[in-house]
Structure prediction request, 249 residues.
Amino acid sequence: MLLQAKIAIITGASRGIGRAVAVAMAREGAAVVINFTANEKAALDTLAAVEAAGGQGIVVQADVANAADCEMLIRTALDKFGKVDILVNNAGITRDNIVARMKQEEWQSVIDTNLSGAFNCVKAVMRPLLKQKSGGRIINLSSVIGQAGGAGQVNYAAAKAGLIGLTKSLAKELAGRQITVNAVAPGYIETEMTSVLQEAVKSDILKQIPLGRFGLAEDVAETIVFLASERAGYITGQVIAVDGGLVMQ
Prediction:
């Protein structure tokens, strides 16, 4: 079991990729802290899936865009489990619009959750992670859109590109403490976010994916599990694309 006795916090874990990560980590022996913002039922469904996989976890409501909520999230994890080994910054939202029509709130809310949310969680976990002196793992969820851009998504692209810069800078700061920091950049994954795409749009996207299919949340989750494990101990500051070959850099 790759993550035996590890404690992992996964933000935005009530559904989609976050839920898949929680279940995959639990299956590998980690105890998981399932963060959600509003949908408690979905978060409890994730917890049920974690327990069905033989794992244990807790559910914690916190808005990552709020620094005080992030501090409470980390404190709750420490009170329950005594330590934190892994932080997965997965929480994210979309507010798509072309820039000429994009409202200030649509820009700011995406930046606040997708980029500042990761910063808030990193700040909150930093002191206990360093105090433990046992290393650790921070994994940030970027996106193919952060690498290649997307029409109507300047807010989302800016936030996800910003996460890449945050990842690389933080990796340099923390390498001496044996804390690795990496980013995963999913392509088009079959989640609620992509389910709203029209069939014609999906068909056009599929033509651009060399592997010829949309990804599954489990494809991303297994990559994150590897990066969180000891097997990835010599990997830091990297952006791992899980996109079927859509963006090759």
